[in-house]
Structures are given as structure tokens and as C-alpha cells.
Amino acid sequence: MAEIIIVPSKAEAGALVADEIVRLIRATPDAVLGLATGSTPVPVYEALRSRLEGVDVSRVRGFALDEYVGIDPAHPESYRSVITREVVEPLGLTPELIHTPNGALEGIEHAGEDYEEAILAAGGIDLQILGIGTSGHIGFNEPGSSFASHTRVKTLIEQTRKDNSIYFDSIDDVPMHCITQGLGTILRARHLVLLAFGEGKAAAVAGAVEGPVTASLPGSAIQLHPHATVVVDEAAASQLASADYYRYALANKPAWQGI
Length: 259
Ligand code: PGA
Description:
Radius of gyration: 17 Å
Bound molecules: 2-phosphoglycolic acid
Largest sheet: 7 strands, parallel
Shape: globular
Strand order of the largest sheet: 1-10-9-6-2-3-5
Helix content: 25-40%
């Protein structure tokens, strides 16, 4: 099963995951990171800023999980813009090495396949950062997504458009379609790190970690992965039946084991 780490604050979650990413980059200067957008990974990116000072990140490569379809890449809420603003620029990554799925309407039929090929050509993703939606989605793989799915165009469910409307003037401005890494793509990454904060995520986290493995809750795909780490605050952990065991296991973990 995934390792569950319950932390008191977002900042501690960010620090823990950032430390692991720094370890990875020091060991593998051209590491391939799977980058998530949304509010969840922000503490990780913030914690990375000071930790990466003096670390050569010029060869670090990255692949975003998803992108809106039909959005101008220059739009401030395109995931290309978000990744540039929140990750590439503050961390000093090399923009040409950081990829987002191509959500342009022209060529959208083969954009998913192109992205899969680019990930494979890079040797696969070393560490994939994930958030989880209130619907249980990871990436934009909404309930019902196949565990074998690859990067492809999907229709956003109403709840996700509502959740994401905070970033737009109104829900009508939230694109209807997205292009997202599939669950099969995500499961190929060598290490999954799923973060979640707040009570609103508690049911999705409990389902993903302890519920049945089901396409109805795409986050439950992490149960199929040999190296998955779930980092949550107390509120997001509040519906976990075995929370006490996760705390006990963490407290007694051999010091030589990383996350
Ligand atoms: P959030 O979204 O980080 O903005 O809560 C997570 C997700 O939808 O995957």
C-alpha cells in the first residue's frame, strides 16, 4: 500500500516533498519531474525555492499532468502559464525542458500520443506530484477513467469546472475539455507523491487509500503502484480508518528508508 504521512501543516508537507525532490535532483541532475497544477502543490514549489539555491537544476526535465483544450497558452490560467509562473521561473528551470500537453485545437487528435512519446523518449517520469480532486480525480482523470488510459482529451465534469472557476471570471470561462495524462501514464512514473489538504479532500483521500480500487474513484489507482506516498494534513486525513496505524508505522520507520 501507499505510505501515508500525516503532517500538521501544508508547509511541513511542502518541506517533506521538496526535500525528496532535492535528493532526487542531486542524485540525478537530469531527473524527470511530473508537475501538478492547482493549489495543492504550491507549498512544494515554495519550499523548493530556498532548497534549490546552489543546486544545478539546468538539466531537470518536467512534464505537466494536464492542460485545458482550446485555451490560449498565453492565458494566465493555461497550465503552461501556471507552470511557467509557479515552477519554471521561481526555480530557475530550463523552459525548453519543461513540457505541457499541447491543448491547441489544431492537431489535438494526436496531441495525446505525441505527449506519451515525449515522456517515453525522456525515459519516463521519476517523481510524479499529484493532487486529488473532490471527485477523486487525479490529473483530469474523472470518475470512470480507465486505469490503462494514456494522455488523451477528456470532458471536465461540472464539479471540476465549478472547483476551477475560482481561477476564472465565471464558470462559463472554464474550458469544457482538457488533455490529461491517463491513469496508465501516471502509474508508469517511478514514484507517486499525492498531496491533499483540508476537509473537502477527506472523502477522496479515504477512498483513494482505503477504498476499493475502482475507476469510480481514479485516485484509488495509487493502490496499484509499488511506490506511492500520500502526504496529507489532519483535516484531509480525518476520514482515514487506519490513521493511527499510519502514524505508528511512520514513527517506527527505519531511518535509512526515505519516502
Ligand atoms: P486543487 O486541485 O489542488 O486545486 O485542490 C487538485 C486537483 O483537482 O487535482
